[in-house]
Structure formats: structure tokens, C-alpha cells
Amino acid sequence: MNNVNVALVGFGTIGTGVAKLLIQQKERITRAAGKNVNLVKVCDQDMSRKRDIELQPGVLTNDLSSILNDSTISVAIELVGGLEPARSIILSLLRAGKDVVTANKALLTTHGAEIFEVARRYGRTVSFEAAVGGGIPVINALQTSLQANEIQKLHAILNGTCNYILTQMEENGTGYVEAVKQAQRLGYAEANPTLDVDGTDTVQKLSILAHLAFGVRTDWQSIPKTGIDTIDAIDITYAKQLGYRIKLLAVAELTDDGVELYVSPTLVRMNTAVAGVRDAFNIIRIVGDAAGESVLRGRGAGEMPTASAVVSDVIDVVLGRAAITFNTLKLWSADRPAKPVKNPADIWGKNYLRFQVEDRPGVLAEIAGLLGSHAISIASVLQQESNEDEENNRENNNENAPVTLIIMTHEAREGDMLSAIAKIDALPGTRSKTVRMRVE
């Protein structure tokens, strides 16, 4: 049986999982690939840290050139993460004649066009199933299983950290800050969780999926995003009362005016599949014109689910499937047909609005008037009853203590909504910035 030599660059959590699969499940992988798949080099700057896997002597190195200059290595896995040196490493690997497997979503969304152009120039491939959804095979679904369809919609929870935090806030009454700390203790969130909770991780993944589904090549930073870092326990409570659950949704939807793209905390109906996804799980709902609705659900992160996707890509490279897909789809190429992206200001939708306002006559009328002047009609209004702190404020002659006001709107244009909120936030009776979420 022929041999295929593989190198791994980056030996952190996911890299350790990949090494475990390639070494401990070698027989299974050999059967799937039809060739002996051998992990011959692992490159990492940290040579001393103990990992949960034993490598043969001479396999671990901190010298990338030992991989670049080894003509017997045909497949290289990049798991360094970030933009640099990951970009330079991948370009060097491609120029050295290696097919590349990566899980680097940030790199693909920022430098995908350059990386794929170099791969085509050198007759190599780039595979990236693990870049979106961890162990959920959504890349394969869009590239192969659903390729006979024109994709109509893609609605997804793509960040397990955010979903875990929201689950703890809803089910256990955990405050946002404590829920983040719990996610960090469990390894779901980084020491600095900003890229997860502010929506950056999700919007980068959406950018990749939108390219696969619709061919769009838009800067991920131009896609509107709102994270979960503005959500309070009171939002969870009101959503529940209204029959909704809050989820951080990534949306790509084909319309007559182009593809709508955005990431936003969203109120979804309790009885839907998306609402039922708990803890660190992800879900991806895809609607095609021929297949109808397909739903993929599973762990979107973690050592072994992500490692599973990486090794699956390695097997595809060995079998030759990756080359067929790569050369047929022309990913990140100007030759790939692309749908236009809809102006974000022209996206329509229902909205949940939470205001902190002075408790005095006329404030609601001012807010309603501004919404109405922007063609936004109100579906319902909820006002929080005075709590003990507010009563104490009144007893201390602070008559203008803030109260919470919740407004649910009918369908409204995004540009009008943002303009109205900016004016409402500037009102004398408004005590804090408006919290806004979309409603499905």
C-alpha cells in the first residue's frame, strides 16, 4: 500500500487532537484513505510543553524548513491560527508543493483570495472544513451535497461560546459576567472572550458560508454585526414572557435585491429547532430551492470535533476528492459567479427594543413619535413595574429614576431603525443606549 506523509504546523489544543486521530486511529484512517497516512513532522515553537499524545523521536520540531524542504511530505495542516505568521506559513507550504488543510477562518476571510490564487498557480489545494462549525460538515454540504440547489437561506448559530453563555443566563439565571467566567473555566471561551461575544468570530464564519452559498466576496468587516455583550438578564426574562429565546444568529438570505447578510442577537420562537439548541452546540439551517430545508447540528468547537473535520479533509486530499472540488468551484476566484450583497440599510425585519428612560409623563410619547416619524409601527409595549430600588429613589425625592421600557415593532427598514434609535438615545429622558435585537 502506498504511503502519504503528512506534516502538522501548530501543536495546540486542536493540533493535539489531530495528532491523536492520525496516530491512534491510523488503521481506520488508512482504510478510509486507501493509503498509509503517516504523521511524520509536527512543527511548533513550544518544544517543552507536555501534550496528551506521545510522538516518536524526531517528529516534533520547531524548524518549519524541515517540512518545506522535505519532498516526501505532500500534505500539511496549518493550525497556528491568526493572520501572521499563518498567512506566510500557508503560502510557503503551497509554494513548496504541499496541499494545505486549515481551520483558520480569520485568515480565509481576510486573505482567502491571495491564498487560493497561489494554490491554483502551484497546482495545490486548500481544504477548510474545520474553519466553520467544528465537527459539523457544513462546508462539504454546501460544496457537494447541495450543489444542485440554488441556496435560498442560511440561518445559523455558529459560536458555541455565545450559545453556552445565553443558555446559562436563561436556564440558571446566571448573570452575563458570571456566565462568561463559567465558559472560560470550561474552556469554551478564551481569556479574552471579545472576538466571541462581540460577534466577530460568527461574522467571519458567515463570510465563508456566504461565499460558498452565494459566491459573494465581501469584506467581513462590512457585514453588520452585534454581539451578545449588551444583553442583560431582563432581556432573557422579557423574551421568555413573549414566547421567545435569544440566540446569536448568523443570517444569509437571497432576495430580489441581493443577499442579506448580518449577525445579531435574535428572538426566536420557543418551538423551533434553532431555539432548542443548548449550551456549546451549533446549528446550521440551510434552505435550497430543490432540497428544501436541511438542518445540521453538533459541536461547533473543541479538540476532537474540530480535529475530526481536519482529518476528514486530509482523507479527501489523499483520495483526490479535494482537488476535484477545489478546481471545479473556483473558490475566491474572480471567475466564480457571485450574487450581489444587499445594502444593509434596506434589510427589513421586526425588532425588540429595550430603553432605560425617566419615569415621567410624555417619555413614551416622545419615543413613539420618533419611531412613527421613521415609518416604524409599534406591535406591543411592556413597561417594567417599579422595583424596590426605584421606590427608594422616589422616597428620596428622585422622581426621575429610570424604568425599563420594552417595545416590539412590526417590520421596519434597517436604515430607518438605526436613525430612529440614534435620535431616541439623544432624548433628555433616555438614560442609556437602546438595546436592540431582531425578531424572527
Question: SSE layout and pairings?
Answer:
Layout: E1 3-9, H1 13-24, H2 26-33, E2 36-43, E3 60-61, H3 65-68, E4 73-78, H4 86-95, E5 99-102, H5 105-121, E6 126-127, H6 138-145, E7 151-157, H7 160-172, H8 176-185, H9 194-197, H10 200-214, H11 233-241, E8 244-255, E9 258-269, E10 281-288, E11 292-299, H12 303-319, H13 321-329, E12 348-358, H14 363-373, E13 378-383, H15 388-395, E14 402-409, E15 412-413, H16 414-425, E16 435-439
Parallel strand pairs: 1-2, 1-4, 2-3, 4-5, 5-6, 9-16
Antiparallel strand pairs: 7-8, 7-10, 8-9, 10-11, 12-14, 12-15, 12-16, 13-14
Write structural notes for this entry:
The mean pLDDT is 94. The protein is elongated, with a radius of gyration of 25 Å. The strands form two sheets. Strands 7, 8, 9, 10, 11, 12, 13, 14, 15 and 16 form a ten-stranded mixed beta sheet that branches. Helix 7 packs across helix 8. Helix 4 links the parallel strand 4 and strand 5. 38% of the residues lie in helices and 25% in strands. By secondary structure, it is α/β, with parallel strands linked by helices. The N and C termini lie far apart (54 Å). It has three domains: 129 residues, Rossmann fold (3-Layer(aba) Sandwich), CATH 3.40.50; 162 residues, Dihydrodipicolinate Reductase, domain 2, CATH 3.30.360; 96 residues, 2-Layer Sandwich (Alpha-Beta Plaits). It has 16 helices and 16 strands.
